[in-house]
Specification:
- With about 150 residues, this protein is mostly helical.
- Among the domains are: about 50 residues, 50s Ribosomal Protein L19e, Chain O, domain 1; about 55 residues, Non-ribosomal Peptide Synthetase Peptidyl Carrier Protein, Chain A, CATH 1.10.1200.
- Helix content is about 55%, strand content about 5%.
- The protein is built from 7 helices and 2 strands.
- The protein is elongated.
Amino acid sequence: MSVVSQKRLAAELLKVGITRVWVDPEDTERVSSAITRGEIRKLIHEGSIQKLPKTGISRGRKRAKREELLAGRHKGPGSIKGSVGSGKKRWVIRIRSVRRKLRFLRDKRLITTQTYGKLALMAKGGTFRSAAHLDEYLDTHKLVRRR
């Protein structure tokens, strides 16, 4: 009384995977005798073969973890990634100084607007460690205009 081929046909008709096809355990005899698509269609209509709902992913573990984090768990030194100085604040301080320097150079017409645009994008990408590093880059690539 194998219903493997019937399940395969039903999966094709129901447009789902084989694992989502449910066969009524009391009607396995009738289902196993069905060999044509028409017979399978009839069994689907009668309810002997049904499509199972999709299984979602449980968020229970996620909720439990969040509760623990709010209570202060999992925040010890072993869970901390990155150095003390790393993070957004350090980036903000650095990028502001570099952008300030770039604006100053553009306004004083020491660099062209095209160069300013390219350097601004480079700064955004994290190319320059500091305003001093930006100066070094300008010197090596001879981008500063001489008056």
